[in-house]
Amino acid sequence: MARFGPYDTQWLTQARFEPTAARRRALAAGLLTFALLAALAFSMAGRGSEQAALAARLAEAERAAASLDAELERTRAELALERATRQELQRQADGLGARVAELSQQMEFLASRRTVARND
User: Fold this and answer.
1) Which of 46, 97, 108, 110 holds its CA 20 to 30 A away from the CA of 27?
2) Out of 10-19, 54-63, 94-103, which region has the weakest mean confidence (pLDDT)?
């Protein structure tokens, strides 16, 4: 066991165990740290409900996005069907236009034969 010398025992009897400026600052720093940690804990507890609300909003946004994706696919299918219908109608119109041109040429030919036959 270590023996205390006369200086050690004198220090214990003469030491001041009352708060000094350094101890007050250390105590104030400790209290400030405790207050900040308590405020942080309180803030984090409040954020739990905020996170739950954000999670609910995120789930709602994901449902809305899925609904919009489905509507987009439906609209794309309708557009593809409309384009195919339009191409088919254009093909039919081109065919009818060619038939009209052919019939017009035949009518002109027949009209020209009539005028030649009348002149004879």
Assistant:
1) 46
2) 10-19
Buried b (16+ CB within 10 A) or exposed e, 57-75: eeeeeeeeeeeeeeeeeee
User: Rounded to an integer, what distance in angstroms lies between the CA atom of residue 96 and that of residue 98?
Assistant: 5
Would you say 81 and 74 are in contact if contact means Cβ atoms under 8 Å apart? no
What gap in Å lies between CA 68 and CA 62, rounded to an integer? 10
Element (H, E) at 79: helix 21-119
Residue with tokens 């996005």: 65
Instruction: Considering only residues 52 and 49, tell me which one the structure prediction assigns the higher pLDDT.
Output: 52
Report the largest interatomic distance among the alpha carbons of the chain, rounded to a whole angstrom: 160
